[in-house]
Amino acid sequence: xxxxxxxxxxxxxxxxxxxxxxxxxxxxxxxxxxxxxxxxxxxxxxxxxxxxxxxxxxxxxxxxxxxxxxxxxxxxxxxxxxxxxxxxxxxxxxxxxxxxxxxxxxxxxxxxx
Length: 113
Fold this sequence. Notes:
The chain is mainly α. It has one domain (4-112). The chain is 81% helix and 0% strand. The chain has helices at 4-23, 30-53, 57-70, 80-112. It starts with a helix and ends with a helix.
């Protein structure tokens, strides 16, 4: 069973990425958006690697697709409004997935006792 401190450490990358994505809703300099795309790509590749280790192919491929969407090399032109929707949806999903992972981890281990 994960302690609260371990859970916070495990969810920190998703929380930081969610904050970066939500800050994209503000009028920021272009460099911030490029930085966020690079960080998002790296984070999603890390999440994909982590899910691969857990034998969770569905989430692994979802994270790979998000890494491709956010990659900074070949810009995906969605327009500001659609990018805002994507940023909010992905940020919300990251936070919810962290909460659900915590519930699944604690629920499965409580049942084993």
